[in-house]
Amino acid sequence: MPLTQVLPDVQEFLARPHGLYIAGQWVAPNAEGRLPVFNPATGAVIATTADASPHDVDNAVKAAKTSFDGGVWRLMPPAQRERILLRLADLVERDAEILAQLETLEQGKSITLSRIIESGGAQAWIRYVAGLSTKIVGQSLDVSIPLPPGARYTTYTCKEPVGVVAGIIPWNFPLAIGVWKVLPALAAGCSVIAKPSEITPLTMLKLAELATEAGVPDGVFNVVTGRGNGAGEALVRHPDVAKVSFTGSTPVGKSIARQCATRLARVSLELGGKNPAIVLADADVGQVVSGLTLAGFLNQGQVCAACSRVYVEAPLFDRVAQGLQDVVTTMSLGPGMDAGAQINPLVSAAQQKKVQSYLDTATTMGADMVMGRDVPDGGGFYVRPALVLNPDDAVPLAREEVFGPVMTLTRVASAEEALTRANDTPFGLAASLWTTSLQAAMAFPPRMQAGTIWVNSHVMIDPNMPFGGMKESGMGRDFGTAWLDGFTETKSICIRY
Ligand code: NAD
Fold this sequence. Notes:
- The protein has two domains: 8-271 and 475-496, 3-Layer(aba) Sandwich (Aldehyde Dehydrogenase, Chain A, domain 1); 275-463, Aldehyde Dehydrogenase, Chain A, domain 2, CATH 3.40.309.
- Helix content is 38%, strand content 21%.
- It has 14 helices and 22 strands.
- Strands 14-15-16-13-12-18-19 form a seven-stranded mixed β-sheet, sandwiched between helices.
- Residues 168-172, 177, 195, 197-198, 228-229, 232-233, 236, 247-249, 252, 255-256, 270-273, 304, 401, 403, 429, 469, 474 line the site of nicotinamide-adenine-dinucleotide.
- Nicotinamide-adenine-dinucleotide is lined by residues 168-172, 177, 195, 197-198, 228-229, 232-233, 236, 247-249, 252, 255-256, 270-273, 304, 401, 403, 429, 469, 474.
- One of its GO terms (molecular function) is oxidoreductase activity, acting on the aldehyde or oxo group of donors, NAD or NADP as acceptor.
């Protein structure tokens, strides 16, 4: 298919000398360093952004704290906050194609996916969370305090915004996950500093500009760009950051949790996964193959909940393997701006190298691999998709998070073996079960160790469905009606009369 034409507004945005977004305006960074933003389809530099210094981060935190302490947002009537956030969703809808193109150009994913999940998903999640602004409730409590004799008490709780929140964002869904990190904090009345990934910073900068246009007061939504071990660490260590809301890799999540523990800053962590699918002998093979294709290869497998391990009961193994093999060997590879390409480049040269090295190691260890089509000529961070059949657990890609278009398929003798092997991982983000048996659909999910279990589906999310990890996949849940709890403190008020 012909490449999607880059809009003039997108070209104009890319050409800007991006600064930091602090207190409602573009601010030149104190630091001189610039970070390149690459187009993964070509390897060309398409923009540069600031590599914020600790001094820059301090300026952003000061702006956020000033706005928080001044009460310009947290004390605003909730219905007014809700209206402003709904207006932000409308502006994202107005600029949806600009945001989608920016996302494909900086991240590499298909423009179709950018339209549906990045700019489309951003609108849906902003609207959902905007509505929560007006649903913050406390409780009135009956108490039995005995002293002094004869005294009576009325007690109640209220929820207050936690303070200044740092939202730290990964590169796989920069706009959608950016919304998940920033918007619940805003809905709760917090002031925020967003730190997008240094690889994919552009859409968060655009979102901050839209937030000001929507009426979010200056200083309430700030963006600092920069490296994780620079701007990211400075944010996490800053004494005026009350809460860190992080999505990213497990090792970085652990180090952030350690930092937060030193000053008991609040922290929520959405981390990595090595997500299994269990296919029982009574499953619908067509549904399994199409469902797992999406679950394993969407966004080139760069999805935290992606299905990367499939355990199939023996009677169905050959048919599922043949179906997935047919898919993997025929998927077309091309740039994200080609809406017809089924596999697009990975996000960066480093990610390409990492995934390729997992595949090379597996080949060296003699793994049985089915490889997809050759990568296109002309540069770009492509990796051929791969299906690995019955790998030994010693092969690293069988147990570690690869975050690429790689799926393992393993024959098991029984449903119990599948369950044991599926749970045998330090991760616990998501899992799926494929079956036509109501009995199995009811009995298995409670025994599967993951924060989300899909039956006859995988990787489908909704703002009303809590999402997050067990074990080393994280702490806390995003989405759902309790989403704002992580951005509020409960205060008890006890009145004697
Ligand atoms: P990453 O951990 O390398 O980086 C994430 C963010 O943290 C980036 O903004 C980075 O600059 C910043 N960062 C890095 N080091 C830091 C430090 N020491 N202090 C503060 N900030 C720091 O992750 P990534 O490579 O961008 O994203 C891929 C990972 O994210 C995968 O492991 C994936 O599973 C995970 N992920 C999880 C979810 C989920 O909801 N559970 C969703 C998407 C991605």
